[in-house]
Design goal:
Number of domains: 1
CATH class: Alpha Beta
CATH superfamily: Gcn5-related N-acetyltransferase (GNAT)
Strand order of the largest sheet: 1-2-3-4
Number of strands: 4
Shape: globular
Number of helices: 2
Length: 95
């Protein structure tokens, strides 16, 4: 059974989650490098902009979803937003 935790607790998986998101939603990051997004995503774990809940099963990171504090720049008062939902590995995304 998967265990749920906030990504900020096991930050060693942050770069991997950010990379999966970068590849899966490449249209969102067309103007940004992977390294830049990984840094932004990690900072977002610490300051709450990209609060990510992950599932860990057998020591692996199979799934995750984020709460983005502001995902619509035209209407910053709206939020938080469910964002960056990813079901990985056997569920569809390859490491």
């Amino acid at each position: 059974m998967p265990q749920m935790d906030w990504l900020e607790n096991p930050m060693d998986r942050c770069d991997l989650m950010a990379e999966w998101l970068y590849r899966e939603f490449s249209y969102e990051y067309a103007q940004q490098t992977l390294v830049s997004w990984q840094q932004e995503f990690a900072e977002g774990q610490r300051d709450g902009r990209w609060k990510c809940l992950i599932a860990i099963e057998h020591g692996q990171l199979p799934d995750g979803a984020s709460l983005a504090s502001n995902d619509l720049s035209e209407q910053p008062e709206l939020g938080p937003w469910l964002a960056c939902v990813l079901v990985a590995r056997a569920h569809g995304v390859e490491e």
